[in-house]
Amino acid sequence: MNKYAHITEYLKGFLKAEVSKRGFKKVLVGLSGGLDSAVVAVIAHRVFKDELLCVKMPSQYSSQNSLIDADTLCNDFSIRAITASIEPMLSAYEELNPDMDKLRIGNFSSRMRMATIFDISARENALVLGTSNKSELMLGYGTIYGDLACAINPIGDLYKSEIYKLAKYLGVPKAIIDKAPSADLWEGQSDEDDLGYTYAKIDSALRLLVDERLSKEDILKKDIDKEMLEMLIKRVSNNSFKTEMPKIAKMV
Ligand SMILES: Nc1ncnc2c1ncn2[C@@H]1O[C@H](COP(=O)(O)OP(=O)(O)OC[C@H]2O[C@@H]([n+]3cccc(C(=O)O)c3)[C@H](O)[C@@H]2O)[C@@H](O)[C@H]1O
Ligand SMILES: Nc1ncnc2c1ncn2[C@@H]1O[C@H](COP(=O)(O)OP(=O)(O)OP(=O)(O)O)[C@@H](O)[C@H]1O
Ligand SMILES: [Mg+2]
């Protein structure tokens, strides 16, 4: 069996077991029009069919292409979807806080989406599926208690470069595969511009650092850019809190 066919079957089994173990039948996916949520939606649809509901949550900063790409995916795969705009909440908060920079607006947008989809999860008696990949999780490239929040994440152990291959295998529309990954939190945002390097380069180094646990010295012998490696080591260490539970004071 092809590697990505095998991964798909494994993730279908994982989702089925984990959702049923928690006593649920329905799942939600926040659908942005980007690659990660498209892959999660297509795999979840194979398992849950009409018990999957995708939630599109545009803001005034979402690009028009993202909205079109999300609709194309839903049409191609007959996936159920609703729209819940975060624009009114975001505008109201921005009016009260006119000094916010784009990073704060972006993180606030991400948390408004989290609040919205978790409210819908209560209404629908459904679980929220996560869409953060391993590259993002390792680098802390996501908003804590925002897009990182979920009940179950099927793609958190797959690097972005693997998500591309999985998307191709699943038949995700070409427009979604071909466009640059973007958090779409402000106009023109691009993951690879924010991070400074392509995911192909980042993932090659992360594999050596995280999976093979090689030392910095040994990684540098393998033709990896020194500045990038130093950035990655710093990010992995500084952002590890994003994948941990809050520390609780133990009474002694
Ligand atoms: N050591 C520590 N232990 C526990 N908590 C710690 C902490 N250091 C900071 N914090 C807390 O964490 C906050 C900072 O983290 P956070 O709020 O996440 O924000 P931050 O890491 O500053 O920014 C999030 C990054 O992820 C990107 N992003 C966001 C959303 C979606 C996507 C996407 O790809 O779709 C990408 C975004 O563009 C930005 O580069 C601090 O304000 C503080 O409250
Ligand atoms: N407009 C939106 N509507 C619904 N959900 C969204 C929206 N924007 C972001 N999200 C949620 O936040 C997640 C994080 O965004 P991120 O950009 O990392 O993933 P993506 O858009 O699915 O893929 P890509 O990284 O290729 O752009 C999305 O997968 C999605 O679940
Ligand atoms: Mg995106």
Summarize the topology.
Blueprint: H1 3-21, E1 26-30, H2 35-48, E2 52-56, H3 64-77, E3 80-83, H4 87-96, H5 102-124, E4 126-128, H6 134-139, H7 160-170, H8 174-178, H9 191-195, H10 199-211, H11 216-220, H12 226-238
Parallel strand pairs: 1-2, 1-4, 2-3
The structure holds nicotinic acid adenine dinucleotide, adenosine-5'-triphosphate and magnesium ion.
The site of magnesium ion has 5 residues, from loops.
Protein name: NH(3)-dependent NAD(+) synthetase
Subunit structure: Homodimer.
Organism: Sulfurimonas hongkongensis
Structure, described:
By secondary structure, this protein is of the alpha/beta class. 55% of the residues lie in helices and 7% in strands. The protein is built from 12 helices and 4 strands, in the order αβαβαβααβααααααα. A 4-stranded parallel sheet has the order 3-2-1-4, sandwiched between helices. Strand 1 (26-30), helix 2 (35-48) and strand 2 (52-56) form a beta-alpha-beta unit. The longest helix is centred in the middle third of the chain and has 23 residues, at 102-124. It is globular, with a radius of gyration of 18 Å. The N and C termini lie far apart (53 Å). It binds nicotinic acid adenine dinucleotide, adenosine-5'-triphosphate (ATP) and magnesium ion. Residues 103, 106-107, 110, 136, 140-144, 146-147, 183, 185, 191, 194, 241 line the site of nicotinic acid adenine dinucleotide. Magnesium ion binds next to loops. Catalyzes the ATP-dependent amidation of deamido-NAD to form NAD. Uses ammonia as a nitrogen source. It holds the Pfam family NAD_synthase.
